[in-house]
Amino acid sequence: MKKKLILESGEVFHGTGFGANLDTDGEVVFNTGMTGYQELISDPSYCGQIVCMTYPLIGNYGINRDDYESIEPAIKGLIVKEVCDLPSNFRTQMDLDEFFQKKNLSGIAGIDTRKLTRILRNKGVVKGKIVNADADEAAVISELKGTNFPTNQVEMVSTKTPYAAPGRGLKVVLVDFGSKLGIIRELSQRDCDITVVSQDTTAEEILLMDPDGVMLSNGPGDPEDVPHALEMIRGILGKVPIFGICLGHQLIALACGAKTFKLKFGHRGGNHPVLDLEKNMVAITSQNHGYAVDQDSLKNTDLIETHIALNDRTNEGVKHKIHPCFSVQYHPEASPGPEDANYLFDEFIELMYQYKNVTV
Question: Which family does it belong to (predicted)?
Answer without folding.
Answer: Belongs to the CarA family.
